[in-house]
Design goal:
heterodimer, A: about 300 residues, Rossmann fold, 2 domains, four-stranded antiparallel β-sheet, B: alpha/beta, two-stranded antiparallel ribbon, 17 helices, ATP-binding (chain A), ABC_transporter-like_CS (chain A)
Chain lengths: ~300, ~425
């Protein structure tokens, strides 16, 4: 189990990360979301022990992360990099051995992963001869070859086509089954919504949201209404408690400032009987993200 | 420090380095140079034509005796008359002809031809005539062949080195300064190329790993110190391999060429007896410690930049320092080994690995060399310890403003203990 307590990091006067706290139980996936420059990579570097926090602590099974724990970590950096002149096997072997594995253990596992992730190519192919997608798969193999207990993935879905993104998603879900703690950052809220158990959102280094995905969604309440009725945009806007109305053809997308307003809106819309659509929903994670980030254009 | 992981990193660097083209070129370069020199020599030998010289004398015995002598690149042929000689000269069967007369027991000779033969041919002819005259005189004085040999034996002249032991006694030894000088010169060039090769290799590798973010993965597997020392160990092992491989190939080629007369002549000329084992050991230690010193510097510089392409720029200061030592060694120290600047610099770590062997070959004491070596080794250790600390911070600094800005940023971070 990973426990992060009041983690903070300052670079001079810049407060990169402030008072960040969360925990990941074994077999749980945590999504770390936030805009560019919000402090995700700095957080990962502190989790990895690459940087010392200014304050707070990171504990793995109750102990500080030191040399002993490093063999348990699997890390996929945001910018992808492998030695272009090395073969797949040399590459995986090197990273595997650095995590304390033996040659024979790695060989066995490599065959499994090559097949499992459908890497096109031979173990003796040089990295530079592989396609970008296959290079990314090889890098994922180097991250997982030693069966890590704490897996840290920085933007694992960036640059993947839909097929490879699905393979990545399956691999992450498989890690949960094996009982690993997984933490990943992503810009893609759909991925986060589908596979995360918990979510932490940071903005300018501060934690603005934390908890189970469903709890977070519920905490905002059902403030979204999709409506298809004789009511016009202006009529809806005039209702007290309606924050925003957008018009998509006949359908109105209404944001409420209070979920209770939904009932009033329903009665108003159905006063003449049948209407095709009335749907009151929670916000999607993407909407919550945009709402919290405050800047809708940068996603 | 985790020694298992240290070894994983060292062997990976070693494998990559030994397989790199620059390593192979480094190993074979001395032989390629010698081989090319040998081939050029052979081509020049082939190109040289034999000069044919006709010999005429009123006393055919003289001409016959002379024609019997074997001389390099020269064929002597007895002719019957001056007219005959001229005819053959015209027909280009002869290059020159020589008329030998004997007057008052002395040989008087003149060479004729369209062109007077070159200096080497004249010297050869002179020698042939000298020995003929000597044997004629010996016959006149009724000397035995032993007596002739005694007469002809040249006087001996040799050089001895004087050195003073601590208790004021004088020790003499055979002159070996030439060989020592050649060895130190070779060591100087070898170190220079070794450093240039490995400095750029190690800097490139580290900058590349940093640029591709491989560094972050490695440092999440093990600590920066282990990585830094592992890299150095790998490079040093590669340098040692190159040293051994070069030595081995040298041995093999001497073995193969052992029947080659010119090599034997060359080896016989070299006075190996005056070279103390301590000189050789010091030389090797300077090569190794010097390479290590510069490898540490190169690794430090390489860790300051963020891309492999910037590595050559980053090690520029290292290259210039090395170049300065090299120039000082080959130009100043060669002509004036006791030069004040050279003496000072032969104790400074940046230059001592180049200068001290040359100064040592010119008769400096072992004491000075040992002190210089200790200074070099100690400063390498200090530099390595400092670099390992810097390295941890450097590899996470991605400063685009150049290496000095990166260095400043790293130092600030180091002080604040990030």
């Amino acid at each position: 189990m990973l426990v992060v307590e009041h983690l903070a990091k300052n670079f001079g006067t810049l407060k990169a990360v402030q008072d960040l706290s969360f925990e990941i139980k074994d077999g749980e996936i945590l999504g770390l979301v936030g805009q560019n420059g919000s402090g995700k990579t700095t957080t990962f570097r502190m989790l990895l022990g690459l940087m010392q926090p200014t304050a707070g602590k990171v504990l793995w099974d109750g102990e500080k992360i030191g040399e002993k724990q490093k063999d348990l970590i699997g890390y996929l950096p945001e910018e992808r990099g492998l030695y272009p002149k090395e073969t797949i096997e040399q590459q995986v072997m090197y990273f595997g051995k650095l995590r304390g594995k033996k040659t024979c253990e790695i060989k066995e596992k490599l065959d499994y992963w090559m097949e499992h992730l459908q890497v096109k190519g031979n173990k003796n192919d040089k990295i530079k001869s592989l396609s970008k997608g296959n290079q990314q798969k090889v890098q994922l193999i180097t991250t997982l070859i030693h069966e890590p207990k704490l897996v840290i993935l920085d933007e694992p879905f960036s640059g993947l086509d839909p097929v490879n993104a699905q393979i990545m998603q399956d691999a992450i879900i498989a890690l949960r089954k094996q009982g690993a703690c997984v933490i990943f950052s992503s810009h893609n809220m759909a991925n986060v919504e589908q596979i995360c158990d918990r979510l932490v959102m940071i903005k300018n280094g501060r934690q603005v949201l934390a908890g189970k995905v469903q709890d977070i969604k519920d905490s905002f309440g059902k403030i979204k209404v999709f409506l298809e009725s004789p009511l016009t945009k202006a009529e809806v806007q005039a209702v007290l408690g309606v924050a925003d109305v957008k018009e998509h053809r006949q359908r109105l997308e209404i944001t409420l400032s209070d979920p209770a307003v939904g009932r009033k809106l329903f009665e108003l819309a159905t006063k003449d009987g049948y209407i095709p659509t009335f749907s009151q929903e929670t916000l999607t994670l993407e909407e919550i993200f945009k709402l919290k980030a405050g800047e809708k254009d940068e996603l | 420090m985790n020694f298992e992981k240290l070894w994983v990193i060292a062997s990976d660097v070693y494998r990559k380095t030994v397989k790199s083209p620059s390593f192979l070129i480094g190993v074979f370069m001395p032989f390629i140079v010698v081989l090319v020199g040998f081939l050029i020599g052979a081509i020049m030998d082939k190109g040289q034509e034999t000069t044919t010289i006709g010999i005429y004398s009123k006393q055919p015995v003289l001409a016959k005796a002379l024609a019997k002598q074997k001389l390099p690149a020269l064929r002597l042929k007895q002719v019957d008359s001056v007219k005959d000689a001229q005819k053959q000269l015209q027909a280009e069967k002869l290059d020159n002809y020589l008329v030998v007369t004997k007057k008052d027991g002395e040989l008087l000779s003149t060479v004729y031809g369209e062109k007077v033969p070159d200096d080497a041919t004249m010297a050869n002819l002179q020698q042939a005539l000298n020995s003929l005259q000597t044997s004629l005189k010996a016959g006149e004085y009724k000397l035995t062949s032993d007596q002739v040999f005694e007469l002809m034996r040249p006087a001996k002249l040799e050089g001895k080195e004087l050195s003073f032991t601590d208790d004021g006694k004088v020790k003499t030894s055979n002159d070996s300064s030439g060989v020592k000088f050649a060895l130190s010169y070779a060591a100087c060039i070898f170190t220079f190329f070794l450093v240039l090769t490995y400095a750029s290799l190690i800097a490139q590798e580290i900058a590349g790993e940093k640029g591709m973010r491989i560094m972050e993965v490695i440092l999440s597997s093990t600590n920066a110190k282990t990585h830094f020392y592992g890299k150095l160990l790998g490079v040093i092992l590669a340098a040692l391999t190159q040293l051994v491989a070069t030595g081995f190939l040298l041995g093999v080629s001497v073995f193969i060429m052992r029947d080659n007369s010119s090599l034997n002549e060359m080896l016989a000329d070299i006075n190996f007896t005056g070279i103390e084992p301590s000189f050789i050991i010091l030389l090797l230690l300077f090569i190794l410690a010097g390479s290590l010193f510069y490898a540490v510097l190169a690794a430090l510089c390489g860790s300051l930049v963020s891309r492999a392409e910037d590595a050559p720029k980053a090690i520029m200061p290292v290259t210039y320092l090395m170049m300065a030592g090299y120039m000082l060694g080959l130009i100043v120290a060669t002509n004036d080994p006791s030069n004040f600047v050279v003496t000072i610099c032969s104790y400074i770590p940046f230059f001592s690995m180049i200068l001290m062997p040359i100064v040592l070959a010119n008769g400096a004491g072992l004491m000075g060399a040992s002190i210089s070596l200790v200074i070099l080794v100690l400063s390498t250790l200090v530099l390595a310890a400092f670099s390992a600390r810097m390295y941890r911070v450097n590899v996470l600094v991605y400063n685009q403003k150049g290496i000095w800005a990166s260095l400043r940023q790293s130092l600030t971070m180091l002080r604040k203990d990030v």
